[in-house]
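ugh finaly. both done.
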Amino acid sequence: MKIIRFLFKDKTHYGILFGETVRILAAPPYEGLNQSGQTLPLDAVQLLAPCEPSKIIALGLNYRDHAEEMRLALPQEPLIFMKPSTSVIGPEAAIVYPPQSRRVDYEAELGLVIGRKAYQVPESKAHDYILGYTCVNDVTARDLQKKDGQFTRSKSFDTFCPLGPWIETDPGDPHKVSVESYVNGQRRQHSHAGNLVFGVATLVNFISNIMTLLPGDVIATGTPSGVGPLQPGDVVEIRLGGVGSLRNPVVSHENTSSPRSS
């Protein structure tokens, strides 16, 4: 099942996608999947980020090959950082290249969307707290990350967390999901979530023993090798097998006055 969040006649709704038809939900999906009885054609709506996370918890160095390309040792336990809710944008919204950076990278990631309040969740119950999965682009100002020695500034610019295009509730085994990125149609990353150092259930358990996860929060599980730079004018696409494809253009800060469109 594909859960979408969308704009129609200046109002935001949640819905379930059936082919080219949207069935509108009566309430956010965390309150159940009760349909309102109203339907719309997909081409009549604007897709937004499929959730409104209070926080995005992301993983550093959670693929062995990415740690190798960054010449860093694997962490002994999950290395987490956070991206703010203001970094979120949806499909086709523009990633804005900030004036402070000279190197902005794409990072393709499998995202977990939390479906209900989660605290101290055991690994055996982790999947009960996941509503579904979505594409994440953990956009990073790589030069600022190296300069600062930590992640906050480099990961937090407005538009630096594209999400979407929907929440897939049943992609099969999440550890078999392929993870790819494309820039201007050329493949740059290719791996699968089976190469995660710390898997899905481990991450939910570890993070929920630190902080309460709220419905709509996102865990971005890390990126494989092949990260690289973007430039204004590029189009970057994140493809997750069995989940979907998330596409965003890149623009210069000089060409936008209102960067966020989530």
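ok and the 2nd:
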Amino acid sequence: MKLMTSRGAPRGARGTRGSALLYALAAVVVLVGMSAAVMSVSGANTRESVGASGDSRALYAAEAGVSRCIEATRAGLVPDRGMLEIGTQGAPAVFAGGDLRSSATDNGDGTVTILSFAEVAGSELGIEVVLSEGTPGIYSSALFAGNTSGDGTYDLEFGGVGTQADEITGNVYSGGNVAITDDAAVNGKITATGSINGGSGDTGETLPVPDIAALDYANNNDHDVAASFAADGYSASDALGGTALQMPESDPSHIFRLNPSDRSSDTAATAKDDYFLEDPYEAVISSSTVNEANATPITLSGQDGNPGPSGTDKVYYIDGNLWVHNKNIYSFKFANSGSEPIRVTFVVKGNIYFSDNILYEDSADDAVAFVAIDDPREIDSGNIYFGDPVFGTLEQMDAFMYAENNFYDNNLDAAGSKTVTVNGNMTAGNQVLINRDVGTQHSKLTVNFDDRLATGAVTLPGLPAAQGGAGVYSVASWRKIPVP
């Protein structure tokens, strides 16, 4: 029953690491690089309070320490079963107008633990990151289909002719087979458990998929969206369309509307409540031009002068379905006019439906992950659907996407979207099942792999663990921790 109430280094030559002078020089280089980075953003304006500014600056400083430790690890500067330090508790490094101490420790089991603590303007913050060395994983691929069902007949298909041919830039993995036909191109390494037809790569290999159940998102999240709506939701009509439950602007969950009445025909067949990613506190832009300037903003709480606590670097958990779909809007953007990057993870215990474009305003610094997880009580859950079922308006998705089960399409055919571009990646625990051929029409799929998660240039909270590759470290976990 739907809720509608008025309140509710190459692990390099190990023998070359032993020089204490090398570590000291590396630390000096790290601090110089970080100082330069801080100077480059020192002119940024802020409209937050002094306390909020201190929190943000402490977060940036701690993240900078993490980034430098990741770089040092990948450069082979962390001694075997030893530690590389940037500042210490007794003698912290001076950074961003405060104190910073970061360390990378080789655990001797193929993992490295990074601890980074910063204190700026009276605000303290700690980050723990675990790097993993292993086989290439879901965030090392542009397109990943784990085929956990073990279907020996499964083909991950790419096709199209001429300008409508699929183009994948990045690695591809299939736990079944890969079939490339006509003019489709994969510009990256292809790995498959089964066969590869129409291309070359490694066969007979199986890559791991994350253990979603072990992450226990229901308890490990920053914002339980359904609980927030049950406590503080109120019914309102809005220019976004229809009457829906909404949240106060100061609540981080205000970026969702619940069960809007004007989309009841779209959601009638879903078994759970339907949350729509749209911000009732921002102006509606109905332009059909697909770019950031013509997209309807979604703004996080506590950013750019908005009320409430900071909504970035958070996990939003939704027990229900999540839609990016509006009858009056073609594109949404995560708006970021300030200096604080948008880094959020949406975890949905249900399905995710992409019908409209979702864009970053700052593609260099912003990052958003959408994770659809299975609900054992619902047969249709843990899937990502993309394509507008009626109007075919979906053209671009800037996001990292993981479906515990499958990717499906809606209306990517002769009457629907002629091209769909993903700037990020598409990963499925089971299968990518996209039927994009109707008659002579093929809807072109372009995937431009965003390697920022794989390289550690960007970290997002609460993501399923990504395994690294032999001699290659990837981020397996990221979390905030108390400062000792």
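summary for the 2nd one i guess: DSSP finds six helices and 36 strands in the chain.
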